Amino acid sequence: MLIATDQQVLLLNTKENDVVPAPLVSSDTAPVIDMTASLVAAWVGGGDVVVGRGQELGRLHTDLEEKVTCVRILCEEPLVLLVGTEPAHLYRITGDGLVEPLEGFDRVEGREEWGTPWGGPACVRSIADHGKWIYADIHVGSIVRSADGGNTWEPVGNGIHPDVHQVVTHPAEPERVYANTADGVFVSDDRGHNWRHAVDGLATRYGRAIAVDHDDPQLMLASVSLGPHQGEGRLYRSTDGGAGWRHVSRGFPPYIEGNIDTFCLAFGGVDRAWVAVEQTLYRSDDLGETWTEAWEAEVPIRALAAPRG
User: Fold this and answer.
1) What DSSP letter does each residue of 227-277 carry, written as one string?
2) How far apart are CA 10 and CA 198, in angstroms?
3) CA distance 82 to 100
4) Which of 2.60.40.3140, 2.40.240.20, 3.30.499.10, 2.130.10.10 is the CATH number of 2-305?
5) Neighbours of 139 (CB within 10 A)
6) Which of 27, 100, 163, 171 has its CA 20 to 30 A from that of 217?
7) Strand 220-225 and strand 234-238: pairing?
8) What's the longest Cα–Cα distance across the chain?
9) What is the DSSP letter of 28?
């Protein structure tokens, strides 16, 4: 599993019992990370992305000057990365460092309505994919999707709250899409045409992070709070695809002062789940039922990325 802090990316072997992350690469800014079963990628600023297997890393330099907010490994051989930025654009990056703007994304219907409550530009907050299908979470502007690997784009159905904070997919359910939003969790079983509001059991609804177990597409973790600044962040668990949620507090705080942010939940390792709260990494050995404090970073943890694919 990858751990991104304000200063570096670390690699953690989730198969071992000892939680001793190994430094992988340093960064002048909070890096943006992703990984598959065999490949890691980290955007470390200055137009540089580090890609490799284990500790064997190579650095690609691009001329991309926009702020990168998320990265997704679309293909390992040949290498293809997809990065989202602020303002909201998508770029395809190949193994030779070639950067290609996705012009179809820039022409997607409804783009002129994207924005933020504070007047700043919208961004691509997270990316999920399954085969040729790609989903880009727009903050703020709902989710847009591509059925052809990123060439053409369209908005998903209107049944989801437009303030989306993370979108994920699952390899065993090609048509299912999960999202956590400012009004709780939404799940689609038809690639985003229709959505069900999966909030039964959630005491509050301002959602940030969401993670789905690699083996069981019904098992989910999600974070909610009172609001972006009100705090009281809580962790919830569902075993039925979001039909019902239960508050998690065995070994984990009943609530934290702020929010459990986007990318700070992950399933990784046999029966293991992970949550990052400020500088503390929590570990569960029973898929999120009970938790222990596993590791303390020197600076806040900004993101987790577990192996997939």
Assistant:
1) -TTT--BEEEEESSTTSS-EE--BSS-S-BSS---TT-EEE-STT-EEEEE
2) 34
3) 10
4) 2.130.10.10
5) 26
6) 163
7) antiparallel
8) 49
9) S
Whether residue 308 has pLDDT greater than 90: no
Looking up tokens 């973790």, which residue turns up? 221
Q: What does the pLDDT average to over 144-155?
A: 98
**Cβ–Cβ < 8 Å for 173, 155:** no
Residue 74 to residue 80: CA distance in whole angstroms: 5
Cα–Cα distance for residue pair 222/209, rounded to 1 Å = 6
Over range 91-99, report the average pLDDT. Answer: 94
CA distance 237 to 34: 23
pLDDT averaged over every residue in the chain: 96
59-79 tens-digit pLDDT: 999 999 999 999 999 999 999
Cβ contacts of 198 within 8 Å, gap of 6 or more: 184, 185, 186, 187, 238, 241, 242, 243, 245
Question: Residues, the chain, total?
Answer: 309
Report d(CA 138, CA 216) in Å as an integer. 27
| Domain locations along the chain | 2-305
First-to-last CA distance in the chain?
13
pLDDT(216) > 80: yes
Neighbours of 288 (CB within 10 A): 29
pLDDT bucket at 309, cuts 50 / 70 / 90 = low
